[in-house]
Amino acid sequence: MFTQKSQLDVLTSVADGIAALFFPSVEVVIHDVATRKVAYIANNLSKRKPGDDAGLEELQGSDLAPVTGPYEKLNWDGKKMRSVSVATGSGNDPGYLLCINLSTAIFEEARNALELFLSVTRLQPQPEQLFRDDWQENINTFLHHWIRQRNTSLNALNRREKKELVIALHEEGAFRARNAAEYIASVLSLGRTTIYKYLREIRGE
Fold first, then answer.
1. Crossing angle of helices 159-172/192-203, nearest 10°?
2. Residues 85-135: pLDDT tens digits?
3. What are the C-alpha distances in Å from 87 to residues 3, 11, 134, 157?
């Protein structure tokens, strides 16, 4: 069994480790349940300090679940945090409450930036006069439609499937463009000689 001091020492090391691993977005606070005070803070994000009131006046040791959360909190700057509390007490020993607070602000800002960047409302239709004869665009569209129909991916295609795709592209008329064979060979990671071999077989040459 840990003594009261050694238990706090261990929890302090755990708090420092978690805060270091997830820096700068995670704060770890250790509350002393017996004194209802903050015992330790690693990577202080909440502007509290050891000795501050922990806000546990109404809480009894028996009320503490081993793990509580995750739940949402609001920090002093108005930014949201997600928290998990871990109780260390047992029997008549109230022990400590280890609270891990993750600031989600950086993730929300990243999400908002991605949503703004990828917003379809800012897209305009492709100008027909520019893309009517874009053979690469047409090949890309057909190729990925063919792949999606088979519930696979470009990188997962085996050699047999690549040959089947070349045949399908030929039937679609994809090889009418001057440099289509070289382009398709590059996209499928095949040699040009392999593409030309498939085309000869298709044409019965």
1. 60
2. 999 877 677 789 999 999 998 888 888 888 888 776 666 665 554 344 578
3. 16, 11, 63, 51
Amino acid at 25: S
Q: What is the CATH number of the domain that holds 97?
A: 3.30.450.20
What single DSSP character describes residue 41? E
Query: What is the predicted pLDDT for the residue at 188?
Result: 93
Query: What single-letter amino acid sits at 198?
Result: Y
Q: Judge whether 64 lies within some domain.
A: yes
Domain count, the chain: 2
What pLDDT shows up at residue 77?
Answer: 85
Mark whether 39 and 78 lie in a shared domain. yes
Q: What is the pLDDT of residue 38?
A: 93
Ramachandran region, residue 95 (left: φ > 0; alpha: ψ -120 to 50; beta: rest): left
Query: Model-level pTM?
Result: 0.59
Q: Are 43 and 116 in contact (CB under 8 A)?
A: no
